Amino acid sequence: MVVVVGEEPAALELPAFVAAARAVAGDVNVEIARVRDAAHVTLRVDERGVGETPACGTGACATVAAAARDHDLAGTVRVEVPGGVLVVRTGPAHYELAGPAEYVFEGALR
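Now predict its structure.
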Protein backbone atom coordinates (compact mmCIF):
# COMPACT_ATOMS: atom_id res chain seq x y z
CA MET A 1 0.00 0.00 0.00
CA VAL A 2 1.22 3.48 -0.87
CA VAL A 3 -0.21 6.45 1.03
CA VAL A 4 0.50 9.93 -0.29
CA VAL A 5 -0.51 12.74 2.06
CA GLY A 6 -0.56 16.34 0.94
CA GLU A 7 -2.07 16.44 -2.52
CA GLU A 8 -5.63 17.56 -3.20
CA PRO A 9 -7.26 14.20 -4.03
CA ALA A 10 -10.05 15.61 -6.19
CA ALA A 11 -7.62 17.60 -8.34
CA LEU A 12 -5.38 14.69 -9.33
CA GLU A 13 -5.56 12.68 -12.52
CA LEU A 14 -5.83 9.46 -10.51
CA PRO A 15 -4.94 6.87 -13.21
CA ALA A 16 -1.69 8.65 -14.10
CA PHE A 17 -0.75 9.15 -10.46
CA VAL A 18 -1.47 5.49 -9.65
CA ALA A 19 0.56 4.30 -12.64
CA ALA A 20 3.55 6.33 -11.43
CA ALA A 21 3.21 5.02 -7.87
CA ARG A 22 2.96 1.41 -9.03
CA ALA A 23 5.98 1.85 -11.32
CA VAL A 24 8.01 2.46 -8.15
CA ALA A 25 6.22 0.38 -5.49
CA GLY A 26 4.79 -2.54 -7.49
CA ASP A 27 1.22 -3.81 -7.62
CA VAL A 28 -0.16 -2.00 -4.56
CA ASN A 29 -3.24 -0.12 -3.43
CA VAL A 30 -2.73 3.64 -3.68
CA GLU A 31 -4.29 6.17 -1.29
CA ILE A 32 -4.13 9.92 -1.95
CA ALA A 33 -5.09 12.10 1.00
CA ARG A 34 -5.22 15.64 2.25
CA VAL A 35 -5.32 16.58 5.94
CA ARG A 36 -7.96 19.30 6.29
CA ASP A 37 -7.49 19.74 10.04
CA ALA A 38 -6.69 17.61 13.10
CA ALA A 39 -10.00 15.73 12.82
CA HIS A 40 -10.72 15.64 9.06
CA VAL A 41 -8.99 13.97 6.12
CA THR A 42 -10.16 13.59 2.52
CA LEU A 43 -9.16 10.44 0.64
CA ARG A 44 -9.31 8.76 -2.77
CA VAL A 45 -8.36 5.11 -3.18
CA ASP A 46 -7.31 3.00 -6.15
CA GLU A 47 -7.31 -0.71 -5.29
CA ARG A 48 -5.11 -3.01 -7.34
CA GLY A 49 -7.12 -5.08 -9.77
CA VAL A 50 -10.26 -3.01 -9.20
CA GLY A 51 -9.54 0.66 -9.84
CA GLU A 52 -10.94 3.59 -7.91
CA THR A 53 -13.30 2.51 -5.14
CA PRO A 54 -15.84 4.60 -3.17
CA ALA A 55 -14.32 3.59 0.18
CA CYS A 56 -11.62 1.44 1.75
CA GLY A 57 -11.46 0.78 5.48
CA THR A 58 -7.91 -0.53 5.43
CA GLY A 59 -6.86 2.47 3.36
CA ALA A 60 -8.58 4.89 5.76
CA CYS A 61 -6.76 3.41 8.75
CA ALA A 62 -3.42 3.37 6.89
CA THR A 63 -3.93 6.97 5.80
CA VAL A 64 -4.59 8.16 9.35
CA ALA A 65 -1.51 6.26 10.57
CA ALA A 66 0.66 7.78 7.81
CA ALA A 67 -0.73 11.30 8.29
CA ALA A 68 -0.14 11.10 12.05
CA ARG A 69 3.61 10.94 11.41
CA ASP A 70 3.64 14.55 10.13
CA HIS A 71 0.39 16.02 11.48
CA ASP A 72 -1.05 16.36 14.96
CA LEU A 73 -4.28 14.41 14.48
CA ALA A 74 -7.11 14.08 16.99
CA GLY A 75 -7.94 10.76 18.61
CA THR A 76 -10.96 10.49 16.30
CA VAL A 77 -10.55 11.43 12.64
CA ARG A 78 -13.30 11.74 10.01
CA VAL A 79 -12.07 10.31 6.71
CA GLU A 80 -14.15 11.62 3.83
CA VAL A 81 -14.18 9.24 0.84
CA PRO A 82 -16.35 9.43 -2.30
CA GLY A 83 -18.73 6.87 -0.77
CA GLY A 84 -19.31 8.75 2.48
CA VAL A 85 -17.55 9.31 5.78
CA LEU A 86 -15.55 6.79 7.77
CA VAL A 87 -14.40 7.38 11.33
CA VAL A 88 -11.00 6.19 12.52
CA ARG A 89 -10.22 6.18 16.23
CA THR A 90 -6.54 6.00 17.02
CA GLY A 91 -5.07 4.21 19.99
CA PRO A 92 -1.67 3.16 21.25
CA ALA A 93 -1.99 -0.46 20.11
CA HIS A 94 -4.65 -0.43 17.37
CA TYR A 95 -7.05 1.65 15.32
CA GLU A 96 -10.84 1.29 15.26
CA LEU A 97 -12.91 1.90 12.14
CA ALA A 98 -16.58 2.85 11.99
CA GLY A 99 -18.78 3.74 9.07
CA PRO A 100 -21.74 2.68 6.97
CA ALA A 101 -21.79 -0.64 5.14
CA GLU A 102 -24.14 -1.91 2.48
CA TYR A 103 -24.42 -4.82 0.10
CA VAL A 104 -23.26 -3.97 -3.39
CA PHE A 105 -22.98 -7.48 -4.80
CA GLU A 106 -24.09 -11.02 -4.07
CA GLY A 107 -22.87 -14.15 -5.79
CA ALA A 108 -22.55 -17.90 -5.46
CA LEU A 109 -19.71 -20.32 -6.17
CA ARG A 110 -20.54 -23.67 -7.74
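The two ends are 32 Å apart (CA to CA).
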